[in-house]
Fold this protein.
Amino acid sequence: MTSEDREHFIEQVRTYHAGLRGFVRSLGVDPLWVDDVAQEAFIVAYNRLDEFERGRDFGAWLRGIARNLVINERRKDARRKRILSDNLTDVLLSSSSASDHEPEEMGDDALARLNALKECVRGLPEKSLRLLKCRYEEEQSAQDIAEEFAMNPPAVRKALERLRTSLRECMEQRIRLTPAHG
Amino acid sequence: MKPIPTEDDLIRQLLHGEACESVFADLSKKASENPGLASRLANELGFSELLRQALGSTDTDPVTEFEAALEGRSLPIEELLHRVHEGSVNRHECDQVVKALWSDPEAARNLRRSLVEDEWLRQAVSESKGETAFIESLETRMWAETRQDHFVEDFALRLEREIPAEVPGSEEDKIIPFPGGWGFSLFKLGAAAAAIALGAFLAAELAAGRLASSGVAGSIVNSTSDAVWTSGASPRQDGTLRPGIYELKSGVVSLKLNGGGELSVEGPARFEVGEDASAEVHAGIALARLPEGENRSEARRQATKLKSRGLSVSEPARLIGIDAREEQATEAVVFNGDGGICLGASGKCRDLSEFEAVKVDHLRDRLVDVPYNPRAFSKAWELLAGVEDKLGPVRVELPGSVISAAGGVAGEVQVFVENDTFETAGTMEVDRVVAGEFAVAGENPGESLETRGPMRSYLLQLTPSGAGESSDEVETSLTFAHPVVGVIFSSDRLENSDATVGTNVVSIEGDSLRRGLESGEDEILLSEDRRTLNLRFRGGEGKAEQVRVLVALN
């Protein structure tokens, strides 16, 4: 492998990690293990980089590797699995594309979308940001958040749902406004 | 017109869990009229049960499973999906979700989409899930798993540049210091693991005689008001800790072990204190601060032997956290200093530098690099940081947080522990604040603080909520575990004392910022017992304001 190949690989990691992690999660991988599986996919890809034909869709190739890793999870001893449930992963795998061509939100536009989302998160009011951080940074359950915010769990879920909806809209709007999507 | 279902159709529906009331009624009627069908039905159902048992995990508590199944069945699909998002869904709940999704491919696609969003939100709001953390973790893992690749060369070159050549020393020196090369490091870690295995053996031997011992192994130093212990697994009334197992239902407690190590534990937690000043965290969150000293490694090793579910701290860092909340995984995080972690007596070890974290799965056969995410330790850190109480919009920042003169969240006071133990020779110039007297912070004559013994330095920073001069007034009160011996709120004195306390404030480019309280509108009151500092921020001119607080540790 040449140093040029290595440089290229590092660039690919930077370009595709966000989408790949989203893709891995979308197959029912336990949130605690998402990065682990995604990193494993990159390591497999790195070790097999000689097999990759330049010019092919690198993102799709990576997703194919990750998909196989997730399929293999189902064969593991229950205690070693990194997925939430075999059945759930089955149903999610069946709704993913066998050729690993995914809708844009799971595919190669992921980085642009993630950056747009970060911008939207920056514009949130303080309380909303706290709520979001409790859930997605501190990984607290709705029950725990409810206690912290003196709310009830259904209200927390509702608030998070509303936040997600508004962030999704904001992200889509920002994406539409970027020159590439002109 | 719908075709009339055959006996086979009805049995299939029953076995696939798709039978409705009418199917049950049909089958019951047909089986009562046909003994052959009844026998076949019984056989099929019996076989289904056998299959379930054959496929089920042998180490799962059937009562728990049953309760989970009952709960899952009664939950609406929205709740179940929420649990999928949280990652807290159990097998039975998953099956309920799957049933709903099989018949609705669009719902499955929507779930995938929302799971992607979840993942992105994590990446968007959490620095520890950011690109840098991911790539750094990937690099380390690549080294660990692909040995022959360029990462090894790169790391070796970097280490050669950054770490001076090792000088031959004592036998202990060969085991402990930071590595000069990866191969050598593995050898050393192997040796450290062997030492830990021996330590664990000795600890077990000590534990055998634990009940007979009446020695005090440590004591509770502090606890939050919501701290509740499990009856029969609590400290004595005088706060002393004997060797044994303790269960904290809720709240946070800090304790000091005989060796000098401090431990802050957040409930629900279960931990064990050994006669040899060791601590083992069986569940919950724990943060350990180990003493500084001339021979730091040795002092810390003597101070606390820390373990958690097969994970041993081989090289104690100054501040190290254990997150053992999840049954499936235990995390260790180094906040300050260099440390090392081993997988029990397996010999698998990892060096950990500041702000690095590893996770071990519950099989305890693998150490995996994970992004640094200190948030879980927020509450434990507050107590260990020596902030006993706080009122108003105050946040105690975690170790590693950047002190930026640009400020933080609007309307909030951030508390940074700049230096948790330091000593200076001579005097320090501080602002004059008389205990028990209300003072307006403005031009201040100052006074010399004669420094004796170890001190801790906090930096309080208010970010105004409004722009320009329209900032809202912010009132806050902080109670420290140690007496306040000096307060600095003048910009010049803040600047002059930065080097002494060893802080690094990131300033805004091109801004000649006055960091202190010069407006003459802010007020300070230090209580007579010198433990509580009340602050009323009124000025600020739209910029962040800082106050340095020095406490005496002895």
